[in-house]
Amino acid sequence: MKRRLGWILALGAGLTTITVTSSAEAKGEPRRWGGFGHGFGGIVAGDLSGSGSALSDDAALGSGGGPIVLGGMVGGGGRMLLGRRLMLGGKGYALITAPAVGRHGSARLLGGGGGLDVGVAVYNDRNWLVYPYLGVQGFGVGLELRNDADITRRVGDVSLAPGQSRGLSAGFAMLEAGAGAQRLLFGDGHRGLMVGLELGFLYGITGDRWQLDDADVTGLGTPSLTGGYLRLTLGGGGFMDGQRRRKRGR
Length: 250
Prior knowledge:
It is a single chain. This protein is mostly beta strands and 250 residues long. It has one domain (2-21, 33-123, 142-249). 10% of the residues lie in helices and 58% in strands. The protein contains 2 helices and 14 strands, in the order H-E-E-E-E-E-E-E-E-E-E-E-E-E-E-H. It has helices spanning 2-19, 242-249; strands spanning 31-47, 70-82, 86-96, 100-101, 105-120, 123-124, 128-147, 153-155, 158-160, 165-185, 191-207, 211-212, 215-216, 226-241. The protein has an 8-stranded antiparallel barrel with strand order 1-2-3-5-7-10-11-14. The longest helix has 18 residues, at 2-19. The model is unreliable at 11-26 and 244-250 (pLDDT under 50).
């Protein structure tokens, strides 16, 4: 609970830093309609598997075998701007972690998923878009366990013979809250290259038990992902403002 509260406070500070720009007066005619697409890469930190200390138990993988707390994300998505303020977005991405190596073995988490979000452009001019957003995602993960010891180890009720690797799988839903900023570059103010960043928080809300060969695994916690992320974006987009629409309507 304390760890989650810490993440929420850190996220609040980050979102305040990003959205404080909205108190400034937007320069020039704001964009009213359009959209952009981008690829992104970033990091996510928190409790990425929901397994807690079960992986690092001495009867399991030993000290250092978990929990898994840091990973990288890579993916793509886009957003539409509707009527100057409303933003609708979607994304898909993969989660990759380095193996967590314990005294008796290792664990590695891989996953992928995506979702939709709704945002508000709190700052909108010819160069910048700044927007908080809320969304929902579906996510699937695989947890690879390996026993490097010379005796059988147990992770929950999963038995690992010496040298054996076994893969678990799970799926769950997540809530997302974040804020982003996008800067239009090398364009005419209506279209061009866009670079930006997004800072947010993911919270796993529902999910099944870990599965091994279509059977439930017990003693390993409920699979989920709870943590904060920072990602950098690179893409392009095109927009229309009120002045441009009036010219085209003549």
